[in-house]
Amino acid sequence: MAQCQVRAASTYAFPKGSTSVEDRRMTLEMECREPATYTAKMSSAAKGRSRVGSVAQDFLLCENHAQLVVQVDRELLEEGWATSLPEKPQFLP
Prior knowledge:
Layout lengths: L10 E3 L11 E3 L10 E6 L12 E6 L1 H16 L11 E2 L2
Antiparallel strand pairs: 1-2, 3-4, 3-5
């Protein structure tokens, strides 16, 4: 049975500039034993560059992790960051 694959799913390199988070990174790492029920595409930033146009990677997620990824993405959007989800997580048939 498929397991969650979110292990260092996205490494966010915050942009340089007049921000208090310059040169900081945030990596989302998750692991669980529940069967995967969603697939999500996530983009990552590299070397302080924007996520726009970056390659998306597919991850299989359980329902809890799918909801967590969406929540983190929504909170980043509220803080003025770009989304890391090229599309909404899709339920696996």
